[in-house]
Amino acid sequence: MSDALGRAYRRLLRFYPRGPRRDELLDTLLEAASPGRRRPTVRESVNLIRHGLRARMGYPRGRAVVVLVFLAGLVGAYFGGAAGSRLGWEFASPVPSAATAAEVTGTVFPGLKVWGGGDPAVIVPQSDGEGVEYGHATYWLRHTGATRDLTGYAAGARERLAAAGWQIHDYRYQAPEDMVDGGQDSSVTFWADRPGLVLGFEGDLYSGMPDYDNDGGSTLTLRRSEPAWLGLFSWPAALLGFALAWLVAAWASRRFSTFGIPGPLPGIVTGFMLFLFLPTMLLFPVPDTPGEAPWWAGLENGYGWLPLPLILGGLLVAGAAGPDIGRGLRFLGRHPRVATAGVALIAVGVVAATVLPHAFDKPLAAPPCHPAPGPPPERPGGEVRDSRSVHVYVDPASTPHQRALITAAMRRSWAGGDGDLVWDPGSAAFRDDYCRGATVPAASVATLPYFFTFELDVPADYPALLQEVQGMPGVVAVHRVPQQAG
Predict the structure, then answer these.
(1) Residue 411's domain is classified under what CATH number?
(2) Quick check: 163 and 195 in contact, CB under 8 A?
(3) pLDDT tens, 24-48?
(4) Could you read off the pLDDT of 325-369 as tens digits, one per residue?
């Protein structure tokens, strides 16, 4: 009998739980081995691995806990599959190429000027803030004489898409309904798909509105469908998550039983954790278009539930690892120098993490600021090309009516969302724009325009905003500015 055979058997016996049974099995295996053997047979290896895992996954008393351990494995599979799917999306483009988008928008809106587009993130928040969905590009146009006929134009769009190989779904028409602040709103929606792409269409018409206001328009969202190869990431990760959760839950339940703690206790805690996980696993925001949001959207949003079951699971595992933690503490007690060095290292890390991020926060003294009359100089194109932030500068002498018309024009542009009128020279936004954060001299204030802040949906919508507001009475200039914080 060789030492190599003994080492090979010891490696295989690590699949069994730690304890005297390992030594008993090793003695039996070595005694039964024929002289001269150097390694276990394949049959022996498979048998030892199978029974070792069975011993690790088993529970000494009570079948109910075995069921709960299995359910804990399902939770692990859910988390693992979600992590694998999320990782897989990092290798996929969330939106179609520019050429594909141009082909699709040309089919839906032939001969019309279409705004929008962009390159969104793989996963984006839903517009209502209630969850997440897959990234998509939005294309839009303001109404023309043809598009104001909602049902007629939508019928033509559906026919053109069907001829191009699209499958049309869920066509809906909402008849005119009264709006709270006057006027009526009517709309038409549908979605369509073809291999690799999903399209959403919506047309809105606001009637009875003032002539300076927005009477609606049409929007088109375009995204790629979930690729079939994503399962190569999610399914293996789900199996790995199941195995890890099963092993940890079985180990924790077995350890608790050796402590003399009643068997149902770990099961009750596990069941409570599963109950808390159910809202996260099963209840996620329902999107308007099927397949618009990932099946694991509840994890991304969290709902505020997630920390509690994770904390309970951590406490359960920490309780099962109590003897090992105790041995570690006794080791530190016998080696005070190691304990002191560890505490010092932790203290240095905490101090560094607290102090270093703020070590260079103290700003340098700002040079004197003497802004020239009028709006600040335009930033170079390379500095603001990808920015979505715009300032619409208005003459301080403009009338409230002119400013109201400017606000209406910004909203009519459909290019994004307007913000507040910045007029206070002491505000951070005013100082940042004219003096890079320094105080604006009182003598210069009267010569500096106020400005509206505006956030574009995508940078490509900037010309749509210019088309509406540039040259209006009271508008001094329209400048893109570096992306605003937040």
Answers:
(1) 3.30.70.260
(2) no
(3) 888 888 877 887 787 888 888 888 8
(4) 666 667 777 778 777 877 788 888 788 777 776 666 555 555 678
Domain that holds residue 111: 98-226
Which has more pLDDT, 26 or 409? 409
User: Which amino acid, 421?
Assistant: L
Which of residues 358, 393, 416 is at a domain's end? Answer: 358
Tell me the two tokens of residue 284.
Answer: 């996620």
Residue 368 lies in a domain: no
Does one domain contain both 211 and 120?
yes
Asked if the model's pLDDT at residue 63 lies above 70, the reply is no
At which residue do the structure tokens 């309780």 appear?
319
What is the domain count for the chain?
4
Distance (Å, rounded) from C-alpha 326 to C-alpha 222? 57
In this structure, what are the phi and psi dihedrals at residue 399, rounded to the nearest 5 degrees? -85, 160
Please report, in angstroms and rounded to a whole number, the separation of the first and last CA atoms in the chain.
Answer: 71
What would the two tokens of residue 205 be? 């018409």
* CA 183/CA 393 separation, integer angstroms: 31
409, 394 contact by CB (below 8 A): no
**Length reported for the chain:** 486
